[in-house]
Amino acid sequence: MFTLVACKKMQVSYPVSTNYGENIFLLPSGIPENPTKVDKGESYNLKANLTKKASLRVVFTNISASETPKDRWLFNNKVGWYADNFVNGIQEFSSTTIGDNSLNMVFQGDSGTVRIDVYENGSAVPADVKYLYWE
Questions:
Q1: In a domain, 2, yes or no
Q2: Domain count across the chain
Q3: What is the chain's alpha carbon radius of gyration, rounded to the nearest angstrom?
Q4: Left if phi > 0, otherwise alpha if psi is -120 to 50, otherwise beta: which for 38?
């Protein structure tokens, strides 16, 4: 007698619809020489759906030429996300919360550039790397 057991894969998905603007995960990735433009002061969203045992870690690195790296982005209305402190131009956001995870993000300052590394399910290699700028 054999018993078949179905294993559900840990999944992370990125929905199109958000309450706080475009989903950052769905923006074009850009490259360092040609980053994707976002509108400063406008709301964007880090929105992801996680299944059981899935995890997501997102690393924001300020790569702006400005000498004042703090406060390049602000966030609020976080659901399911844990936010580390902004240290040396880097801030990490992570979640293992099953279901909807959402965070409202606004880019600010005269101008700025950020690299966003997206790590899924504990991987040491980013699933995606995004370069965004605003002016």
A1: no
A2: 1
A3: 16
A4: beta
Q: How would residue 2 be classed by pLDDT, with cut points 50, 70 and 90?
A: very low
**Contact present, 129 and 118 (Cβ < 8 Å):** yes
pTM over 0.85: yes
| Burial of residue 1, with CB atoms counted within 10 A of its CB: 0-12 exposed, 13-18 middle, 19 or more buried | exposed
Distance, CA of 11 to CA of 121 (rounded, Å): 8
CATH number at residue 51: 2.60.40
Q: Give the position of tokens 């709301």.
A: 43
Residue with tokens 């880090």: 46
Residues with Cβ < 8 Å from 25, sequence gap 6 or more? 14, 46, 47, 48, 118, 128
Instruction: Give residue 124's domain range.
Output: 12-29+36-134
| Alpha carbons 117 and 128: distance in angstroms, whole number | 6
